[in-house]
From TrEMBL:
SMART domains according to UniProt: AAA
Keywords assigned: ATP-binding, Nucleotide-binding, Transport
The protein, known as: Phospholipid/cholesterol/gamma-HCH transport system ATP-binding protein
Organism: Cyclonatronum proteinivorum
UniProt xrefs under Pfam families: ABC_tran (PF00005)
Amino acid sequence: MIEIKNLKKSFGSNLVWENVTLSIPNGHTLAVIGKSGCGKSVLLKHINALMTPDKGEVLIDDVNIFDLNYVDLRIMRQRFGVLFQSAALFDSISAYENVAFPLRYFTKMTENKIHDRVMTCLDMVNLSDIGNKSTAELSGGMRKRVGLARAIVLEPDYLLYDEPTSGLDPETSNEINELINHFADNLNITSIVITHDMHSVLEIADYAAFLDEQKLSWYGKIEEIRHTQHDRLNSFIRASEYQI
Ligand SMILES: Nc1ncnc2c1ncn2[C@@H]1O[C@H](COP(=O)(O)OP(=O)(O)OP(=O)(O)O)[C@@H](O)[C@H]1O
């Protein structure tokens, strides 16, 4: 379980947000929404301690990750898969090698075991036939799927997604949303997704967190978002392309 308690972050005199408190039960998906610059990416970077807060805690199964030493933090980070906005693939190596990379870096698996695991993960994202292709040859949707295969290759408990459908057409976005749902439902992965896409929020999320006015302005179950009386959240939703 991920619990965020009373988190505050500023850069110099720029307060990003404060008093951020929320929790995500295991196997559920949280969507983080809000205007550009409200601090969604900064929040995501706190969850696996890529950034440290001014104040507050991020508890993973009751352990505050900011208390961990270097070795324990490295072990904790292996429980997280991350899909970056750009997919962040290495273009000089094949799709297969991109997915194999975390296994080579973090484990002592044999080549046979690496092969089996990489092919299983490529199969899960419906890309079992493209392993030898260079990632530079792939479409945006395929790159995201290779990024997803790499994110799950170490069998993480948690997946962090930074705008997984940005730049994709609606049909390809739906394919990515289906994969996110598949991972949550079948692999019991707890996910946090930053997105500007309200359609995706409704498709994939169990909970939503709305960052606004330098705080967590609204947090609740996704069913409640349709009936919220929160004016600023309502106008944020109305301004999105997708009307709920
Ligand atoms: N490394 C950093 N150093 C200084 N300021 C930063 C740093 N990272 C982010 N910020 C600032 O923190 C604030 C929140 O940025 P963040 O990238 O989290 O916003 P966001 O909600 O993800 O935006 P977008 O939707 O445009 O991606 C911004 O004012 C940004 O300039």
